[in-house]
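Here is the promised in-class demo. Please do not try to memorize the tokens; focus on the logic of going from shape to residues.
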């Protein structure tokens, strides 16, 4: 079983001169930025049908070089560093993700603090974010808060209260912190506000996270974490 993260055919050798991880990350981020511009402009587009069809043909053509070397479901992206927290395609924070705002998160006085601006592509009610997008952002920053507090786990419960709609194209601020640890169960709370009115909570959430036992971790992620093991990782798409 090859360890190639570069091709859909795991028996193929890796490219003779692989570009550096840093260069691939920069290229992935550049593509992500272009994709985010595309999806936002598509969501806001009032262009005539012939222009939209021309764009669709161009996008189909652009898909060809991107699709040449694909990883499988069981392969971690070669540009990622799981232990270092680098997830280039994370759908909330990933620089390479077409669907990530992306949310930028840092730790400020023990709290995870995130900033982002949501475009029209995230619209639910006119002018405001879809409620599922708010939950997505909150789940991410809650998970980040539990990880930086030394209690990484998986979300088993997310209670979300929508107090006011979240405006699009408006700088937002998220904040999260751990409020309780009970064995393997970790509770954290998070809020979304606008940057200009940080005291007016728009959405708040409480998340319950469970730290995995080693057998649970192995059952769920063993295939991805041990690519050289005898399981048929590359068979999964
Ligand atoms: C820096 C990096 C930042 C990364 C941020 C990423 C954020 C994104 C986070 C996610 O989105 S994770 C993906 C969404 N979550 C999942 O897919 C998890 C699906 N759930 C599971 O796979 C299992 O529930 C899990 C392996 C996590 C736990 O297994 P079990 O459900 O068998 O629970 P377990 O027996 O280990 O129970 C541990 C404790 O948690 C409790 N528990 C489990 N699920 C619960 C629940 N839903 N509500 C309340 N309590 C729950 C359970 O009762 C027990 O309590 P006690 O110890 O007091 O007995």
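The designed amino acids, position by position:
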């Amino acid at each position: 079983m090859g360890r190639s993260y570069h091709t859909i055919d795991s028996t193929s050798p890796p490219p003779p001169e692989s570009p550096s991880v840093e260069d691939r990350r920069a290229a992935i981020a550049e593509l992500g930025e272009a994709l985010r511009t595309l999806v936002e402009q598509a969501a806001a587009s009032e262009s005539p049908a012939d222009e939209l069809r021309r764009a669709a043909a161009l996008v189909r053509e652009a898909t060809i070089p991107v699709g040449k070397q694909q990883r499988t479901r069981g392969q971690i992206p070669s540009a990622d560093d799981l232990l270092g927290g680098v997830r280039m395609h994370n759908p909330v924070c990933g620089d390479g993700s077409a669907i990530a705002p992306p949310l930028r998160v840092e730790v400020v006085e023990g709290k995870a603090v995130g900033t982002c601006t949501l475009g029209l592509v995230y619209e639910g009610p006119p002018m405001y974010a879809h409620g599922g997008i708010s939950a997505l952002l909150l789940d991410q920053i809650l998970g980040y808060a539990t990880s930086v507090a030394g209690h990484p786990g998986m979300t088993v419960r997310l209670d979300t209260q929508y107090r006011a709609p979240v405006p699009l194209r408006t700088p937002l601020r998220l904040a999260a912190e751990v409020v309780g640890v009970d064995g393997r169960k970790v509770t954290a709370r998070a809020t979304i506000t606008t940057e200009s009115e940080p005291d007016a909570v728009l959405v708040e959430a409480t998340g319950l996270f469970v730290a995995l036992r080693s057998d649970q971790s192995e059952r769920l992620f063993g295939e991805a974490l041990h690519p050289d093991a005898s399981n048929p990782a590359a068979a999964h798409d």
